[in-house]
Amino acid sequence: MKVYNVDLYEHFGFPKPKTAEGILECYLPETPPEMKTRRQRPAMLVLPGGGYFFTSGREAEVIALRFVAKGYAGFVLRYSCSPLRFPTALREAAMAMRYIRENADQMEVRADKVAALGFSAGGHLCGTLGTLFDAPEVADIALAEVVRPDGLCLCYPVTVARGKTHEGSFQFLCGKDEELRDRLSMDALVRPDMPPVFLWHTRDDNGVPVKGTLQLALALEDAEVDFALHIFRHGQHGLSAADATVYRAFEVPESSEDLASWPEMALNFFAEKGFVIQDEAI
Fold first, then answer.
1. What pLDDT digit, counting tens, does each position of 162-171 carry?
2. Which of 68, 255, 256, 260 has its CA 20 to 30 A from that of 205?
3. Residue 210: which residues within 8 A CB-CB, separation 6 or more?
4. Strands annotated E in 61-143
5. DSSP class of residue 235?
């Protein structure tokens, strides 16, 4: 497997704001020569959570590798957080999509099957990537069809801007700009031409209330967007893979027994949408 990092600002020649990150971590499986095939894989761009204050290691490489193990090319974006605000992280996510699609052939990636997955605040970023792909803030990055993911996976996402929500995420993202905050409420951003969405949350999430995900699901239904929704009864916020790969073995939090199967559920959802390996004999 090839593993390397790309500074997206340096790669594309965009001015890099002070304190910005914009680093794309790439995890690319290599096809054994004896298979004698030209292989193209679906791709998953992972956007860790962290309240727009940092990007969590618990929700990064280990998740990308779960998808790599099932035939995907994996990517993790270390996007910029506070003190940088909107649209910095969104622009970096757009750059990541452009990098993946422009280099799809050499990375053995299907350019038409690139999904994005986000946790918590990263779920919010993932949702904005899937709805603001033609926004003026990213117009200079790439065409809308390049920026737009082909599928979204939102894991205990920050969604609504008002009511039961995660205040810190919106404060770090928007500052005191109340108009921007309302604009970036995910339920208001839903549009019929956005990608299909896989959503999951826990009923007793102690960090990001589940109500926002339910409100988002209703908005998706009203817009006739294809989606799947899974609400697990029990589990604290930030569970990620919910096992000893991301927690000390003696400190794995209790959660609903079937919660740890969410990656397989997501993989099945995307497989139904055509996210599968394609081979061509050589």
1. 988 999 999 9
2. 68
3. 201, 202, 203, 204, 231
4. 73-78, 109-119
5. B
pLDDT digits (tens, 9 = 90+) for 83-125: 999 999 999 999 999 999 999 999 999 999 999 999 999 999 9
Residue 109: what are its φ and ψ, rounded to 5°?
-115, 140
Which bin fits 57, alpha (ψ -120 to 50), beta or left (φ > 0)?
alpha
Q: In sequence order, what are the residues at sequence separation of 6 or more whose Cβ sits closer than 8 angstroms to the Cβ of residue 195? A: 115, 130, 148, 149, 150, 151, 152
Pairwise CA distance, residues 230 & 237, whole Å: 15
pLDDT tens sequence across 102-112: 999 999 999 99
Other C-beta atoms closer than 10 Å to the C-beta of 187 total 18
CB–CB of 137/87 below 8 Å? yes
* pTM, two decimal places: 0.97
Positive/negative CA dihedral, 172, 175, 176, 177: negative
Instruction: Find out whether the peptide bond into 192 is cis, omega within 30 degrees of 0.
Output: no
Over residues 32-41, the pLDDT tens digits come to: 889 889 999 9
| Structure tokens, 100 | 């993946």
143-147 CB contacts, 8 Å cutoff, 24+ apart: 146/97, 146/98, 146/101, 146/102, 147/94, 147/97, 147/98
Instruction: Please state, in angstroms and rounded to a whole number, the distance separating the CA atoms of residues 235 and 256.
Output: 6
For 108-135, give one letter per residue: b (16+ CB within 10 A) or e.
bbbbebbbbbbbbbbbbbbbbbbbbbeb
Cβ 231 vs Cβ 200: under 8 Å: yes
pLDDT digit string, tens, across residues 199-229: 999 999 999 999 999 999 999 999 999 999 9
Of the candidates 42, 68, 216, the residue with the CA atom closest to the CA atom of residue 128: 216
CA separation for the pair 132, 191 (Å, rounded) = 10
Residue in the structure block whose two tokens are 């280990």:
62
